[in-house]
Amino acid sequence: MTDQQKLLIILQPNNIERKERTLLNAPINIRFYGACIACTVIDVILIFLSLLGYFYPNPFRRTPLYKQIFQKLDRFTIQFWYSITLLALTIFFFLHFVSVGGSLLSIQIRKPLIFIPQLILCLLAVLLQLLLFSVCITISIVSDDTMWGIAIFTLVLLFLFGIYLAISVFTFKQLLFECDDFKKMLANSKSVHFKEENKRKK
């Protein structure tokens, strides 16, 4: 059997569909699906906590963060920026929740561009957790008040989002490779069909 005949067999619809199912069941994609489920749960929890903090701000006024930074500001300014921050966080985690679904869709339809927003938002989530962790550690060190509980919670989120970002990057690279490989296969198939037609005409 020649290479051209092998390529024609591979490019048959049934074989392409079987190949795609094999790629979707690859270990990296299985890990990504599991990470998406975990990240979705985390997003829902963070959205709930943001909304809870927005409607019930009193616990925030008892935190060291409020005492060290916001206590000297007037009440209206504090309430304004507090509300804006929590609404922004709610929207951010909701967008990340939606982008996770977009990344799963991009794998199914082989469109890498749909995957990119999820990578950007996940990177921003990691940077946000890193910033909050740094603030908690700084306040705990330079003042008598401690924020170790919030710092540990933020560190756990930083670890989880970091793992999810790493898995997402590997999955995105694999998706790019698969799409490039599939385009090459289609280009080769067109070349093979063109040569076969020329032979028949001769």
TrEMBL record:
Taxonomic lineage of the native organism? Eukaryota, Metazoa, Ecdysozoa, Nematoda, Chromadorea
Note the superkingdom of the native organism.
Eukaryota
Name of the protein in question = Uncharacterized protein
Q: Which UniProt key words apply to this protein?
A: Membrane, Transmembrane, Transmembrane helix
Transmembrane ranges? 32-56, 80-107, 119-142, 148-167
